[in-house]
Write a structure and sequence with these properties.
The chain has 7 helices and 12 strands. It is of the alpha/beta class. Strands 1, 4, 5, 6, 7, 10, 11 and 12 form an 8-stranded mixed sheet that branches. It has a two-stranded antiparallel sheet with strand order 2-3. A two-stranded antiparallel sheet has the order 8-9. Helix 5 crosses helix 6. The chain binds cytidine-5'-triphosphate and magnesium ion. Cytidine-5'-triphosphate binds next to helix 3. Belongs to the IspD/TarI cytidylyltransferase family. IspD subfamily. It comes from Streptomyces synnematoformans.
Length: about 240
């Protein structure tokens, strides 16, 4: 098997607030994207990383990676430009993969602190024959379902309360048999924000998706408080 990682990093980071594209913002003095690339490149299974950078910033991203990743053993790092949605960006990343890659891990740049063991576990499960593998954790908050399209500022009526024990919160890297992931991105229509993860698209093909244990440190940096947590996790690692 040859395993590659695709890292969508083309988002603006609107929920994080004004500033540089999220993937380029500093975490412990180093751009978040660099942490994410390192986390994937450190995995023995991964021999190629395709970074999908903000449109028009490929040169800047290339320079930034060259500055930070000189000692990155034998992992090749390629940079391409992303699109308007995460789904577009992942598709552009897949299109840059060489023909001999048969296992693909898709990992959010916004999950910079994923432990290498989680990456290895996902890759191993795909290599062992699962077409789609997702790291996941039990949900700690009770989740309510509401009617979509409620008015902002108005109290929202609750439609249902799914049984919490039957719910999982999913993370990345999500690992796939390359053909399955490619087919999902070719066939599943870009339904706006409908597909929030790649495994969800694969499910719509009728292909089985399985879960492996995720990790607390693979959380997604989305809002300002997540940066506080990420800095604290890094500081603890460095202590
Ligand atoms: N992403 C991407 N291309 C896009 C949108 C998102 O590659 N057009 C990537 C982000 O860079 C991120 C991952 O998808 O690594 C997960 O998306 P999210 O956390 O939503 O990041 P942003 O879209 O940047 O944040 P926001 O939605 O707050 O703007
Ligand atoms: Mg987004």
């Amino acid at each position: 098997h040859r395993c590659a990682a695709v890292i969508p990093a083309a988002g603006r980071g609107v929920r994080l607030g004004p500033g540089a594209p999220k993937a380029l913002r500093a975490l412990g003095g180093t751009p978040m994207l660099v942490h994410a690339v390192r986390a994937l490149a450190r995995a023995r299974a991964v021999s190629l990383v395709v970074v999908v950078g903000p449109p028009g910033e490929a040169a800047q991203v290339r320079t930034l990676l060259d500055d930070h990743l000189d000692h990155l053993d034998s992992t090749e790092v390629v940079v391409v430009s992303g699109g308007d949605t995460r789904q577009d960006s992942v598709r552009l990343g897949i299109a840059a993969l060489p023909g001999d890659v048969d296992v693909v891990l898709v990992h959010d740049a916004a999950r910079p602190l994923v432990p290498v063991d989680t990456v290895e576990a996902v890759a191993a499960a795909v290599r062992a024959g699962a077409p789609a593998v997702v790291p996941a954790l039990p949900v700690t908050d009770t989740v309510k379902q509401v009617e979509p399209g409620g008015e902002p500022g108005r109290p929202e009526p609750v439609v249902a309360t799914p049984e919490r024990a039957a719910l999982r919160a999913v993370q990345t890297p999500q690992g796939f048999d390359r053909r399955v992931l490619t087919e999902a991105h070719e066939k599943v229509p870009a339904a706006g924000e409908g597909a929030t993860d790649d495994a969800g698209m694969v499910e719509r093909l009728g292909v089985e998706v399985v879960l492996v244990p995720g990790h607390e440190e693979a959380f997604k940096v989305t809002r300002p408080l997540d940066m506080v947590l990420a800095e604290a996790v890094l500081a603890r690692r460095r202590a």
